[in-house]
Amino acid sequence: MSSLVPLPGELQACVQFCLLVGAFSRSRVLRVLLFFPVLAMSLYMMLFTTTSKDSEDIVTWTLIMTSLFQASDILFINDVASLRLVGQSTPTNELSFVDRGKWALRLLSTPRAIGWEHEPRHVFPPHPPKSQSKWSFILSQSLTTIYYFIILDVVHTTIVLSPAFRRDGVSLTSGGYLLRVLNTALHAAHIWSYMSFGYTAASVLAVALNVTEPSDWPAIYGKWSDAYTVRRFWGRTWHQVFRRTVSTHGDFVTYRVLRIRKGSFLADNVHRYTAFFVSGVLHAAGEYGMFRNQFWEKSGAFRFFLLQATAIMVEQVISMIFHPRPTPTLRRLGYVWTFLWFFYTLPNWMDPQFRQGMADNYGFSRSLSYGLATGQWKLVA
User: Fold this and answer.
1) Is residue 57's pLDDT more than 90?
2) How far apart are CA 333 and CA 339, in angstroms?
3) How many C-beta atoms lie closer than 10 Å to residue 56's C-beta?
4) What residues contact residue 277 under an 8 Å CB cut-off, 6+ apart?
5) Could you read off the pLDDT of 29-50 as tens digits, one per residue?
6) Residues of the chain with pLDDT > 70: what percent?
7) What angle do CA 109, 365, 195 make, to 5 degrees?
8) Gap between the Cα atoms of 106 and 224, Å rounded
9) Using CB atoms within 10 A of its CB, is residue 91 exposed (0-12), middle (13-18) or buried (19+)?
10) Whose CA is closest to 220, among 104, 117, 123, 341?
């Protein structure tokens, strides 16, 4: 650890610049060539640098690996010139200099492909109606932002006060089943409220500045009522920020490398395992930033995400054999199954991260709920 150097922000900026140049360029050859310096810079940052704080390294290293896989998609394995925005009539390689620049910026800033022809609209919550006025949207989203802020503040306080989330604390699985349920729910609630708060706040700012339209902001999470199978949880309820990154690599391995017939059971599962493996790589990169020479001992990302693919395959086999209809009773049983699955798989993955101090950065500098609970308004995780 002592031989690591401070993470250079210039390299992070350079990676994003290479992505932008590649997306902007009409040359397929240039895009492929740009991938290799991105690869080299990313590996250097992950292997030889640090932010000097474990709880920051895990997030930053996940983002570095995400950018690397985004580069693989945009620069290396796919020809992004084939992508079009909704309503785009001019072929991408024939766009003007200014329009191509806007096109490239839009591509890099919309990982969920909102507003693109390849957007998986059947997965996302409905877009806000085009008829909704700017100020109506800003008011609605501002209130929603406050709602998520309150939830996030309460969740932060509960986590900070719980010994299961402290660096020197007890295991998430200690204290019996009830506390294990609570700890699992708290961790999920933190991710959900944190991302929802940031997303809705960004939507208010972007629309207020006329950068985007209200209709460009479907909710980041789907309906919890859709999560009556593990497959629907990952495919509809949970955020889809990594969806294109993992699915394009699944397409590449399944249909272009192995040339498996689309629609077959084998193709479905090779694609699924590849996508979840890529997700495992993204999160394992963050764990490497946190654990370093203890990575193989403490990392649980690969196990967790490959288990998700296995659970979905089991659901697929059951569906193929029994053809169950989603009746109200089966849905209720499905909610129980999905909850118990994450109750079983999630804590064992997260435990080593909290023992390494992942919650050190949780919380705001001032907290109303923490003040009400402890009498100290300054929250220090």
Assistant:
1) yes
2) 10
3) 17
4) 302, 305, 306, 309
5) 999 999 999 999 999 999 999 9
6) 98
7) 30
8) 29
9) exposed
10) 123
Q: Could you tell me what percent of the chain has a pLDDT over 90?
A: 90
- Categorize the per-residue pLDDT at 2 as very low, low, confident or very high, splitting at 50, 70 and 90: low
* DSSP secondary structure of 208-245: HTTSS-GGG---SS--GGG-SSHHHIIIIIS--TTHHH
For the chain, where are the alpha helices, taking DSSP H only? 9-24, 28-48, 54-71, 97-109, 134-161, 176-208, 230-232, 243-251, 265-291, 295-298, 301-322, 328-355, 368-374
Q: What is the pLDDT of residues 200-223, one digit of tens each?
A: 999 999 999 999 999 999 999 999
The end-to-end CA distance of the chain, in Å, is 24
Quick check: 354 and 166 in contact, CB under 8 A?
A: yes
pTM: 0.94
C-alpha closest to that of 73 among 242, 243, 260, 244: 244
CA-based nearest residue to 116, from 128, 104, 131: 104
Residue at token pair 């199954």: 337
Helix (H) or strand (E) holding 130: none
pLDDT single digits (tens) 302-317 = 999 999 999 999 999 9
User: Position 165: which residue type?
Assistant: F
pLDDT value of residue 367:
84
- Select from 133, 34, 48 the least CA-distant residue to 76: 34
Which single residue is written with the structure tokens 């699955």? 341
